[in-house]
Amino acid sequence: MADGKRSLITLTTDFGTQDGNVAAMKGVVLGLNPDATIIDVSHDIPAQDIADAAYVLRRAFAYFPPGTIHIVVVDPGVGTGRRAIAVHTDSALFVAPDNGVLSYVLADLELAAQHLRIVHLTNPDYWLPEVSNVFHGRDIFAPVAAHLSLGLAIDKLGPPISDPVTLPEPRFRREPGHIAGQILHVDRFGNLLTNIPGSALTHLGQPIVTRIGTFEIVDLSKTFGSGRPGEPVVYVDSSGHLAIAVVNGSAQAKLQCSVGQPVDVITHDRTSSPGRSP
Prior knowledge:
Layout: E1 8-13, H1 21-32, E2 37-42, H2 50-61, E3 68-73, E4 84-88, E5 92-97, H3 103-111, E6 117-120, H4 136-149, E7 173-175, E8 178-186, E9 192-197, E10 208-212, E11 215-218, E12 232-236, E13 241-246, H5 251-255, E14 262-267
Parallel strand pairs: 1-2, 1-3, 3-5
Antiparallel strand pairs: 4-5, 4-6, 7-8, 8-9, 8-14, 9-13, 10-11, 10-14, 12-13
Helix pairs in contact: 1-4, 2-3
């Protein structure tokens, strides 16, 4: 992706919208580039939940036009020795704290053989004149993104780095008749979204049994309407991964599950007892 003017900027934060922090960041961007278009990905990331922000960004970023700049501010280490970084890829740019929040995106881009340039944001010429110890989203990340949107070369922002912080790899194992994964995200409907690719299920044979906690759910549904109200169903979500829902209800509440909990998918003939659902 050649350097040049880019005017589409996204924001992902855990700020919520009641305190004006998101508005302040937008004001900084627009003060430097009045032609910028700013899109909110989410401001409802659970407070300080770096992994959840990484997951939400991964689901959204690929649908934006080439050259989009993504600002991510979920930053429990703000004001400490953690680095601030910018990343230039063949398809997008990212500005974020170096705390693993870009882990999933960068892994996907590396898998796609995209070239990555990562720099440590050390040049204060592209920050606000006064920098708070507790609001780098406004004082560093927003102005840096605005300057990038005006065509600034990423190399002007600071020295290159090759060791960005990454999150631990989620649980994932595939073997004959068994796939082991985990819940990565709970959406606003209480659906449990996993890291198990739907494409991997074709190698298991049918029917499948999904185990989560003490419960087993038999077979795979095409949509929520395939089950009865209150019944848990397993389906492939819009990102192409296995997910668990309760028809007209919350799987999180009914199954008492949370992010990080193991999920196992096995073929029916490997179960030790008949599958059941709660």
